[in-house]
Specification:
By secondary structure, the chain is of the alpha/beta class. Helix content is 56%, strand content 14%. Helix 2 links the parallel strand 2 and strand 3. The longest helix is centred in the last third of the chain and has 22 residues.
Length: 257
């Protein structure tokens, strides 16, 4: 199977690298520099959208929102029975169907972690996507990260939780690193310790299961050091701050449509 990737920016490049070996990749981008980069990274390159279309079984649309209309206009009459997979931010299935005249569309919402093959990806299927195509899609695109099939009306909330979420996680890592500096560590060492601690904690929660509060009680012994820190977080409304952060981000995502 050949997947034609339209647009070789961050997302196009990230997905191409993640699914390489599980599908043949053919890239098209209007930028000669990006086409050359794709070529140097071992991918086939098309010099025109028409050639890409003729040579591909599936299409991955990874262009900026402002460029979608022009691309769709070029390929609309020739999409045929091909599967169209879109990572274009804010572009709904219904709008895509209206523009492309096909319902064989999968909408994706990945986050920046796709750059290292660890994306958290929301997906929603158009009515024309067959069950066997869904299974093939899951098999191939799960190589880029974790897939979550959700209702499209939850995409804004997903954007806040997983799309913007890495920025909030980076902010937390930075805060932990600064705390380490205050205690006497270098920033780089404190950052490394914080990253490893968070990765290990998340892996424990993922593998062992249970609720975060259950594990908090295992770490925080009676009268110990941990409960002193937990007390500060509770007094300052840590959970409420995070909830409001996600709520405001989600509301902003809705207003941008």
């Amino acid at each position: 199977m050949t997947i034609g990737v339209i647009g070789y920016g961050n997302m196009g490049e990230s997905f191409s690298k993640a699914i390489k070996g599980h599908a043949e990749i053919l890239v098209y981008d209007v930028s000669d520099e990006k086409r050359q980069r794709a070529l140097s990274e071992g991918f086939g390159v098309a010099n025109s959208l028409e050639f890409l279309l003729e040579s591909s079984d599936w299409l991955l649309l990874a262009v900026k929102p402002k460029d979608v209309e022009g691309v769709i206009k070029t390929i609309r009459e020739k999409i045929g029975d091909r599967l169209l997979i879109s990572v274009v931010a804010g572009l709904s299935l219904s709008k895509m169907e209206e523009m492309s005249k096909t319902s064989k569309i999968i909408r994706l919402m990945p986050n920046i972690n796709a750059l290292v093959g660890k994306a958290t990806i929301a997906c929603a299927f158009g009515g024309g996507v067959k069950e066997e195509e869904k299974e093939s899609f899951r098999r191939v695109f799960s190589k880029a990260g974790s897939l979550y099939e959700i209702e499209e009306n939850l995409f804004d909330a997903f954007t806040a939780l997983a799309g913007s979420g890495p920025a909030f996680a980076f902010k937390f890592v930075h805060a932990l690193a600064l705390a380490g500096v205050r205690e006497g560590f270098s920033y780089q060492l404190a950052k490394s310790i914080a990253i490893d601690m968070l990765l290990g904690s998340c892996e424990l929660l993922k593998v062992m299961g249970g609720y975060p509060e259950d594990w908090i009680s295992k770490v925080a012994s009676p009268g110990g050091t941990t409960i002193e820190g937990i007390k500060v977080l509770e007094e300052r409304g840590f959970a409420g701050i995070v909830m409001e952060c996600i709520q405001k981000t989600s509301e902003k995502a809705k207003r941008l449509l």
